[in-house]
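Can't paste images in this forum, so I'm doing it all in text. The chain is below; anyone willing to post the predicted structure tokens underneath?
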Amino acid sequence: MARTREQAPSARATVKQSAARADYQAETLYAIIDAALVGTVSVAIDGQPFALPMMVARIGEHIYLHGSRTSRIIKHLRAGHPVCVAFTLIDGIVVARSGMNCSANYRSAVAHGQGEAVEGTEKAELLHQITYTIIPGSKGDYREHLPEELKATTLIRIPLSEAACKVRTGGPNDDKDDVSLPHWAGVIPLTQVYGEPIPADDLPAGLATPDYALKFPLPKKP
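Text version of the structure:
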């Protein structure tokens, strides 16, 4: 999946608006998905659009999502219909000297493709790996999946071979005539902060908080 920053994978995955902000490199795509945690899964069912935010995990060159086998979107994806998954990270509010020029610094990614259901022992193994991907360092701190849980859950795999990123950085792009106006301009940074772990109300006394929770998020593997 080696591509240059300017090399789009397909026509539908080509950034057209503000194309100079496009980035088609795998490392950019992976970094955005890994940081986002949640992706918006969009499909068309019987001519109607549906979009659902879901926790998504990247493992290698694919993204994985899971849900109830009775879910409308999950059943649609299992059948191999087209899907679009979008990820967005807001890094700052860009304040300009005019409302029209105010903006945001962001990192976004959109992946197009078709889903496929993962079955058998691979399904059980990947469901564990998804948890370890979302909660790095937690491997071995869970019981095994129950047969009825696996039966009720569908795991969908979507390739990342057709995806595009778009990134904005920097300050406001004010009109030249506005620069001398007596209005503040700049960037208000936004960051994601992880708080102190909160033990479950029914946690047995004396059970220590593990390092993966205290030091969350630990670095993720490529």
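The radius of gyration is 21 Å. Residues 94 and 103 are 5 Å apart (CA to CA).
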